[in-house]
Amino acid sequence: MNYSKESQDLDFAYKVKRALNESAENIPSPALERLAQARKLALARKKQEAPVSVLAIKNVFAGVNGFASQGMGSWFGKVSLLLPMLALVAGLFGIYEYEQQQNISELADIDAAVLVDELPPAAYVDTGFTAYLNKAEE
Length: 138
Description:
With 138 residues, this protein is mostly helical. Helix content is 72%, strand content 0%. The protein has six helices and no strands.
């Protein structure tokens, strides 16, 4: 049989439970009395649970601020969420535009350098010229 690890563990737990239940019936009565007294003693010594105080603030969830509960109206809460979102979108758009302008500027500088150079543009795609430049650098 191919049992998974979980089903094998569960079978073992049931076997142990059954064995303990069967052996519990065979415990002599003096031992049962001592076990009962030990249980009562342990329960008497158990530390009493202290009440726990918890700070619970009303309406503190995502999207709910304190102004809505103070009577400012729900429109203020919506505007207070909308303004940061608009600022985020505007900021991301500004960053995108700035990066595009930087990219265009770099490409324009490269194009200007190629056009002002004394070499014809065909020299840049010639593999022999590239090999010549690599030899000249060494």
